[in-house]
Amino acid sequence: MGRQWFLLVPAFSVALALHLSTVPLSSAHKFAALQLDNGLGLTPPMGWNSWNFFGCDVTEDIIRETADALISTGLAALGYDHVNIDDCWASILRSLQGYLVPDKKKFPAGIKALADYVHSKGLKIGIYGDAGVLTCERRPGSLFFEERDAETFASWGIDYLKYDNCFNLGIKPEKRYPRMQDALNRTGRPIFYSLCEWGEDDPSLWADQVGNSWRTTDDINDSWESMVKIADINNRWAAYAGPGGWNDPDMLEIGNGGMTLEEYRSHFSIWVLMKAPLLIGCDVRNMTKETFDIISNKELIAVNQDPLGVQGRKVSMQGPESCLEVWAGPLSGDRIVTAFWNRCGKVDHIKATWADIGLEPDVPMLARDLWKHENLPDTYTNSMKVEVNSHDCKVFVLTLEADRISLWVQ
Fold first, then answer.
1. CA–CA distance, 6 with 373 (Å, rounded to integer)
2. Which pLDDT belongs to residue 35?
3. Which of 77, 109, 123, 150 has the most crowded Cβ, counting Cβ within 10 A?
4. Using H for helix, E for strand and C for coil, what is the string for 27-96?
5. DSSP string for 243-276
């Protein structure tokens, strides 16, 4: 078990001190009202996806070795339990009977045998489909084949479906995506349903009763510019996420080489705070210690998996270029997670005021640094100011200091 915080304080004191349902932090939140009630996705999914590193070169050997690596590195024990196959797994043509079949060269043993292997490791397996006539890499899509393909996925033991948006014939996603939802439900197998319509028709406004997550943006790429842009887009929809249904700003790029260590640390920090699905996108068989240290941060993972399920959001922009940012969100146990993100080109100080993060004035708070894994010695009242390097991000959990408080790390 990772480190956890326990706060023992009279309930009325917390109620008076923490006004987490008042402006500005939480006024836009639904406070994690349950979304699609299929029993899945009560916290954001965690795991690995093949696309960002392997693209169309995915094979069954890679999937097996990745499952092994998730176990041997300890990542699976931290919650990374999905092994998701993206596009290019399928043959170019359906069978004569109209069924999806795997590419025999890449997946000679078939998907069912591969799923059995992944399940034998105590992991879950995901697969890719498309709500169009073809996938983005021109394999058979599932539009008009929803029933048959859902039955196929269920018969193989699939646990997670990423459902893309290519070659969709111009049919509105609000009509196409529920068809697969209904088909999956009729199989009787619980399958996490991840909509990937790129945010084109604002799925946060309608997908909460269709899927367990929905992409709010176009594809990410392994660059600072892409990551920052996607974070800002996903932030707009913070009010619409909660247990059972999550905004999805796309997979993690950490470890793929296109960003600096500080930028990858920011990437993970903000995805964690936004309650984004944490799907590793690098080759976990050959990752560096720096990559592992970022994605295995137990305390940050605990923020992402917090049962309250409220997506944190941007609450302050500072400096002449407005590139010094504070992001924050409430956690269970009357705590607040606060991120200080320096998107400027030089080191600078960032200040979070209690008004920004949803606290009443003069409330004394204790802080824990989630990257350094240490408690700060000071008590903070009304504000907290932190020095942050360029393109880096520091994350703290703030907890009420009171007369009757017992605070420890387990």
1. 16
2. 63
3. 150
4. CCCCCCCCCCCCCCCCCCCEEEECHHHHHHHCCHHHHHHHHHHHHHCCCHHHCCCEEECCCCCECCCCCC
5. TTBEEE-----TTSSSS-HHHHHHHHHHHHHTT-
The pair of structure tokens assigned to 214 is 């929905």
Active site annotation includes 232:
no
- The residue from 87, 159, 164, 248 that is catalytic is 164
DSSP letter assigned to residue 209: G
Q: How many residues does the chain have?
A: 410
> What sign for the dihedral angle of Cα 380, 385, 389, 391?
positive
Structure tokens at 148: 């048959």
State both tokens at 170: 């111009």
pTM (two decimals) = 0.91
Q: pLDDT digit string (tens) for 244-303?
A: 999 999 999 999 999 999 999 999 999 999 999 999 999 999 999 999 999 999 999 999
Q: Which two tokens stand for residue 215?
A: 């992409």
Q: Is 116 a catalytic residue?
A: no
DSSP secondary structure string, 334-364?
Answer: TEEEEEEEE-SSS-EEEEEEHHHHTB-TT-E
Q: Side chain identity at 209, as an amino acid letter?
A: Q
Longest distance between any two alpha carbons in the chain, whole Å: 73
Residue with tokens 């993970």: 268
Alpha-carbon distance of 233 to 120, in angstroms, equals 38
Residue pair 61/85 in contact by the 8 Å Cβ criterion: no
